[in-house]
Amino acid sequence: MSEPRDHEDGVALPAETAWPMVTALGVALLFAGLVTLAGVSVVGAVLALAGVVGWAREVYPKTREEVVPFAAPSLRARPVVPAPQEVEHLRVGEDGHRVRFPTEIHPYTAGVWGGLAGAVAMAAVAIAYGVLVQRSPWLPINLLASAVSPSLMDASLETLRAFHAGPFALAVVLHVLLSTLAGLVYAAVLPMLPGRSMLWGGVVAPVLWSGVAFLALRIVSPTMEAHVSWPWFVGSQVAYGLTCGAVVARTTRIATLQLWPLVLRARVESPGLRGDDESRP
After folding, report:
1. Both 62 and 114 in a single domain?
2. What pLDDT digit, counting tens, does each position of 55-112 carry?
3. Residue 20 lies in domain
4. Residue 199 belongs to a domain
5. Contacts for 100 with CB less than 8 Å, ≥ 6 apart
6. Given CA atoms 245, 248, 253, 256 in this order, what sign does their dihedral have?
7. How many domains does the chain have?
């Protein structure tokens, strides 16, 4: 195929032709006749031969061309004018290290403290439900323990309202562990979400988690699913999200390892390469 050539009134391009399609149809019929009728192969061979000859005459000895006229001057693209505004470039890490997002994160300790603070707020709302609605502060604690405690999986309402030392200790450990893990997730994910972190941490995440719990409790803990009050449950999740998100959001972010020099990323002792006010994530 020849390259486009400029003319005074336009650009010369190869002319349109249907011979390649005729050739393709002939080849298809040629092979289709192998599994159908011999006459189909004959028709295909004739079409393929005619297509090859017609296609060759379009190209040799001289390619048939047609001139595509230029657009009117008023419809053509305007010249590119450099903009005076400055462009904010990505900060490239040391030694050509590629930039990854986020460039700054919250320290892991913020997730731990945020998770513990959220655990206290969630427990306060849950115990308030137990005292005000169920006349027992132990019911929400026993409901949480029923997810892993065989003795409470089929317990009655009166049993759930009573104090049990073993399930109480189990619920405290489970509550602290899950709250701390969720706090670490907050510290890692919140810097990557656009907009207000309190909206994501205090509203979106609790609503999503409540929806997952609504679908999973019937399998994980039928006892908890039978006695849980969903308005209070969602309220406790929102209390956790707002408290944990507030603690995490108030901490000072630190730069990720991608902005460190190679000697520091490799843990090589090299005093003086980093200021004393910087800290590791």
Report:
1. no
2. 898 888 888 888 888 888 788 788 888 877 776 665 555 455 555 666 777 888 998 9
3. 5-68
4. yes
5. 256, 258
6. negative
7. 2
